[in-house]
Design a protein that fits this description.
disordered C terminus, alpha/beta, 46% helix, 5-stranded parallel β-sheet, two-stranded antiparallel sheet
Amino acid sequence: MPARIEGLLLDMNGVIRHWRNTGARTSEQLTGLPDGTIAQYAYDHPAYRLARVGVLTDQQWADDVTDRLAADFGPDVRTTLHHWRDDRGEPDPGMTTLLAHIRRHIPVGVLSNCTDALPDDLALHRIEFDHVFSSASLGVDKPSPLAFRLAAEHMGIPPHALAYFDDEPTFVRAAEAVGLQAHLFTGADACTSRLRKLGLPLTGHDEPPAPTAAR
């Protein structure tokens, strides 16, 4: 029988926040860059991995991306990249509402492969967690077992008593290998249903309001 859940750990991107990449597309269109150029220079480059594990700050990484783009496409690129940088994704309303309900019962943490910009992004979106773990702050990224072990240790919860949701199957399997009760995230409704089955008292979270009495 699974252990009683004492805490919850969530992935960030694809679970709590969704990226539409509208900022990057706007920057590319204004400067005449081919579609996908910013993603290639930003995320398909070793500098991003360095920022993701805290060797570079988010700003140092962004400056490096800007310098490389300007070197290859001309200095005018610098004037439009603020659209890319200003785009911080969109919170998932269903998950942010669920998050607030869960935190009434157990501590909730976020574990995300990202730069040190995570705390500022959470503040921007007004999303609150009890524990915040970026891979940059931990110095290690998923799917390393150490990332999950460190998160559980900092939360003060044994891995077997910690539930975890992620939209990346590889990360789910990695969390399972460490002992977490890990589940593939497919949406807020499915997540709510799974948490109820794990014993969390979420009755009323998604129930409709009571009907108004007839006059």
